[in-house]
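Chain A, query sequence.
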Amino acid sequence: MTKVSFYVLNTDRQEFSSGYRPVVRLGSIPHQQRKDIMAKKEQLIVGVDVGSHAVKVCQLQQTNKGYRLLAVGNAAIPPGAVEDGVLNEPDEVGKAITSLLKNLKIKATKVGISISGYSVIVKKVRIESMEDEELAEYIEAEAEQYIPFDIDDVYLDFQRLPSSGSGKHNDRMEVMLVAAKKEVVDDYLDMLREQKLQPVLVDVDGFALENIWQTVSPADSNVALVDIGASKMSINIIADGSSVLARDIVVGSDQLTDQLAAVLDIEFEEAEQVKLGRVTLTDEQQGEVEDVFIRICTQWILEIKKVIDLYSSNYPDKPLQDLVLSGGGSKVKGLVEFIEKEIGINVVCFNPFDSMMVNERKIDRNYLNSIAPELAIATGLAIRPAII
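Chain A, predicted structure.
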């Protein structure tokens, strides 16, 4: 079993017959370590987020005044090239990444990626309280009982969670356990190496989102981070500065587009524009669109509510202040207002570049604002140091 760490930012290596392979890094950056990264002004990796429809890339630079955005963009990949986080067509995805890096004039080769889907298990477990060294030994010996995979087939990581504050069970502790299937992770690493890139970090989507939110957010509030992609929704609830509940759910904005295309008898691409409110509709069509919207988005809201209700039952004294929305699906017209009405919580549309320095002669601000929601995960990867 390979042991990996949430906290260590430098990437240790394991020697394989084909050379060196980086150990996976899963999880959030502690607050003090995040401040240290800012202070050191280290060279950062290039964040590469591989979705089911597109690859997204972000490159940042540290300065005395914060982060400067150097390059950002996305590129479409063929349908089916990536499904549920699994890399089906590595050559096509690799070419898309290389072409995008070339178009953005990014010469750096150290990159970080994140994973999601069935190949990743994130689970909170309650165990007897113990010291860190003893905890590491316990996890190595007992993790298999919590994970539906053979322990030899996964990269494993864990993080101690803050106390729920009840004071009733001081002899118990909560631990966030993360397992990622080696086969899936290694396919991504091999694909990147084929493109002459050097992967130094593998994270989980929800934790990459957490890192960028806590890096650029001015307050340490309790929030639900919800990233809606084309085929997957990631939810990560942050309380007292730490992730306490994380879920990947197989729903996404493609559901909405597919249903709109079927109801209106139009092509997928036109349905995408309808979804974003960019097409003028007849009164009859508007009614049909609203019916689809309510039906599909209600499914999303029910899934979000399940996670929030679970959190509230475990942490009744730590109410959520905001729901932070990101991902391409967050751009669906009317979604923010619908969520606020149905869940009764303030919704924040996350733009990770709001407080960053941008050279508007090179990067158009309107373009940046339009793609910002779907670049949140890539940006969360791009704040990591490149030093190995």
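The two ends are 22 Å apart (CA to CA). The longest strand covers residues 66-76.
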